[in-house]
Design goal:
Chain lengths: 254, 607
Amino acid sequence: MNRINQKLQEDKKLLSIYFTAGYPNIDDTVSIIQDLEKNGVDMIEIGLPFSDPLADGPTIQDSSTAALKNGMTTEVLFDQLKDIRQSVSIPLIIMGYFNPMFQYGVEAFCKRCQELGIDGLIIPDLPVDVYHKQYQSVFEKYGLINVFLITPQTSDERIRYIDSISNGFIYMVSSASTTGAKSGFGDEQTEYFQRIAKMDLKNPQVIGFGISNNETFSQATAYAKGAIIGSAFVKHVTNYGTDSIDKFVNSIIN
Amino acid sequence: MKLKVCGMKYHDNIKQVAALRPDYLGFIFFEDTPRHFDTKIPEISEDINKVGVFVNEDVNKIIEKVNEFKLDSIQLHGEESPYYCSILKSASRFHKAIEVIKVFSIKDKFNFEVLEAYEDVCDYFLFDTKGKLPGGNGYRFNWSVLNEYPSTKPFFLSGGIGLDHVEDIKLFKKNIASKYCCAIDVNSKFETEPGLKNVSILREFINKLNNKKTMNYNVDEKGYYGEFGGAFIPEMLYPNVEELRQNYLKIMAEPDFQKEFDQLLKDYVGRPSPLYYAKRLSDKYNTKIYLKREDLNHTGAHKINNTIGQILMAKRLGKTRIIAETGAGQHGVATATVCALMGLECIVYMGEIDIARQAPNVARMKMLGAKVVPALSGSRTLKDATNEAIRDWINNPVNTHYIIGSAIGPHPYPDMVTRFQAIISEEIKWQLKEQEGRENPDYVVACIGGGSNAAGTYYHYLHEPDVGIIAVEAAGLGVDSGESAATSVLGKEGIIHGCKTLLMQTNDGQITEPYSISAGLDYPGVGPMHAHLSKTGRAEFMSITDSDAMEAGLELSKLEGIIPAIETSHALAIFGQREFKKDDVVVVSLSGRGDKDLENYIEYFKI
Ligand SMILES: Cc1ncc(COP(=O)(O)O)c(C=O)c1O
């Protein structure tokens, strides 16, 4: 069974952390993954940086630009991850925009992911219908789970469609926004979380965007299987470097 | 079936032929031929496979040439043995994995048994006519010999193929002999002298082979132009884009919409814009040049045709807040103008570099009540302004309409913008009829940033095969200089701003930063319609440098008393680069006026 599905069966609320590969330093990728696992993170999204990250706010834009300047490329990332499964056992997901994968060759990309022990992909600008028609069979051939986003504006009908095509979890974007920590959730979010919880979807939901601390993590996981932290973690690394990852993770889950 | 053009020799000719987007270009390194290649290969699209042709050459020499010219394939035209092929196939000193094409010559008969030993040591076979020379004999062999082809290896069909053989090729395609034929290889029949290809005959050949008349150059029902287009957007944008997709054609067809659109174009924009016969310019270049005067529109460019259309659309969709990106500031001004007209809030994203080089337009937008927000990321030009506008839309999904300013973005934008700009060619048709007695010119010409004035200028001529389409891109400091925006040459298929198109990018798929003196052409992609026109060879793409454009702008000012926008000057510069016949009628889209560029002209010419 795919590590993501296994993890989703555990009887606990899951914490998933996003970081930008190659940031702050080109060679931090592996040690960040190891540290996150050691400190109790359940799942990791490895951000493959892109020059034009349309769905990201300033924090991840800046870390992406810096990572590319540091020399991060698809090939470099794959190379860094070549022995990752010897030391890390939690699910690993690559999150990136479609163009770098398209240039690498979608099939070649998926094949490489499988070889390295990557469990899934999140590609915000690969639409569900294009995936469904053109790429689903390739992803499945290499045992990869593709994760789709939904937002407060996504219609029930489309959510059901996305649920039918997903086989891992659904990434619930907490509000209409690009990535970047906001301060707290209001009634609008709570209503949205409740509405989705009531839909009784086949796939569990994990909430992302705007989760930055213990409070927002608890609010989100009151309704969903887990939550994803991105910008807040990248900011932490920017401010405090990679030595105090334990402090960050502890502040969220303990 | 793919196309290989072999025997390329001359720098400019290589570029022109490459612009027709053949799948392979062949360079002959055999010295004993007038087509011997001995110069440099200019920068051409990476989609084109570069083939080196050798005859019984030393293996080390082949490796050296392959690496020096970054060849993708080698074609062996002599008596190379299977063992020799296997050495090349497994050589590790190549810059990349290369493909081996082994040539066999056929006259009326061929013993196919010889192929067997080559099955595992080459990637393709190529069948050529047996004659005195190792290739380039200029006549065909009897293709029915291939009925006996015993292999499943894909092969190239070669030998004396010319424009006259299109029907034969079509027949051949229906025959089982062609089952494994993957490409047609042409050479001597398309030359004006050995090594110099006749670009227009080659284009005609490509068009005829592809049945150009029946090809669709408009968007299809799925939002694609051939393989380009679509809507590659994050889920956050889906409801907005989908709402637009479901409604745009319906709304545009409403009589009440049409009435309001036409009325505003007439009374507010000042349409129809004149079609002006430029006599002195025509005399100078010895052809008949007409200028479609979009520069005389209110706000000084074609951009307002689209913003009028989109603001009416936005109102019918119940939107109250308008966002836009802008490069030269023309689209920003046109958007700010219609927002003032309709009393809607307006936010324009503009690259920091462009804010500096297009100051008058920034001031205009502010006077019109718009908020101008600098884009500070990346190259701080049009691409980055577009990113910011898209991010704004993600953050404001309900009340906001994004007025994209060119024929780019996710479907339905390229088509919607094209339809609003199509008024340009609609008018050219009747205006030319009045002046020349015919609706169709010999050529329509436009500069391409994202491609909206071009799309409008071509629209009603796309399916008129007697009208040549010329698309002019910005070469910046030169296509090979690293400072350029000539996407059709430098670009590869990829995804930018929600659509699949040609775009300038690294091998790793990172979008690269373009350069042009003109802010409106300084964009790393082209609209998907134009990518399709380029790929199919329907349009001829040319690239013009900063300096040639500036000179052409000055020339139009002196000869006709019209100061054009620098974007437009690129389109005008083709007359110095390309010949037209004396009685050719060439219509150029004069997309904008030069007021916004005065600073740049003054500085450039030290006026
Ligand atoms: C006068 C003028 N012409 C051409 C362009 C290029 O845009 P497009 O290719 O969409 O026509 C611009 C863009 O700003 C412009 O201002």
